[in-house]
Amino acid sequence: MLPGVPWLLAHRSMLKPNQPMKVSLYANDYVLWQDSLGKISCLPNACPHMGAMLSEGWCVTKPDGSSVVACPFHALEFDSAGCTVLPGSNKPTKSLIEPLELIIQGDFIWSYGGEEPKAPIPTTLNEIASEYEFVGYVADISVKTDLLTMLLNMHDYNHQNGTHRPLFEIEEVQFNQFIDDGHHSHAYFDLPRTKPTLSDILKNPGLLVLPKVIQVHLENCFPSMVIVHAHSPMATVRECHLFVPESPNHTRTYVLVFMKVHNPIFHLFKRNLLHLASVIVKQDAEILEKLYSNTPQHIKLNNEVGMEWVRRNFESFPTVVQPNLSRAEVNYNFEQLHVGTRSR
Q1: Cβ contacts of residue 158 below 8 Å, gap of 6+?
Q2: What InterPro entries does this protein map onto (predicted)?
Q3: pLDDT, tens only, 170-207
């Protein structure tokens, strides 16, 4: 599960004031909450009395605006340091459960899960947040798959006209370029579509803003994030797919959507934009839970350079190594050297 990686546990918008939220990381469960002053706290989710899930409890607001989380079993209240006041006592105990260290950057809540940091927090999200309007989050789900399989799916550029064919009516994948920069990469490919029917449009009005050929630019920050860069005359969109290893066999994923509107009419499509992102994640989750992930791979398709990038970084982490120069990577690295970065 790559200990030492910074993982984005949540965006601040996902935390309703004084409502406990359960998050999992590295096979440990935590309770995350935000008080009315905006302070965010995180404790192990098991009450040290009898193990009740604190995330199933409630928050109690104190006179100064701070809040504590209350155990649903015996109503013991724990502050952000993991201290409580036992019945019949007026003094808080020492810390009984060690808080999870958080790194909060604006609205982004990061954590190394108690592990020694081996990679820096990517700056990409802060750059996006400073330039784009935050639209919302969708598809916060736990998928029954390991982290590596999840990442291989997200960097499998051949699955667009299979897994996502029912949504976009994609005819084929026309791969253009892969730019490999260690733990950071970019992929560019085109997706010609069949013309949607009236029935398709009525189900997903957001299809109206999609072009005949979807030009895809994926920015990849290993291993926790894939950003879809989408451009149109009406708006520029940044669709950020996040991944968190909950346990060896479960990976959490969710999507943060940002946009910059060029035509005011695009505001009418905000909800459809979130809906499309949600459907994409649902389709990926469904196929991931129907894979025999241990099946030996006897077939190699074109355009698997993204998957090779994932495997190489997974095996060598935290060290950044040169590409292993498989046939696909030789072709795309050659193109990068002689053609240069494609215009974005």
Answers
A1: 173, 301, 302, 303, 304
A2: Cholesterol_7-desaturase, Rieske_2Fe-2S, Rieske_2Fe-2S_sf
A3: 778 888 999 999 999 999 988 887 776 677 667 666 66
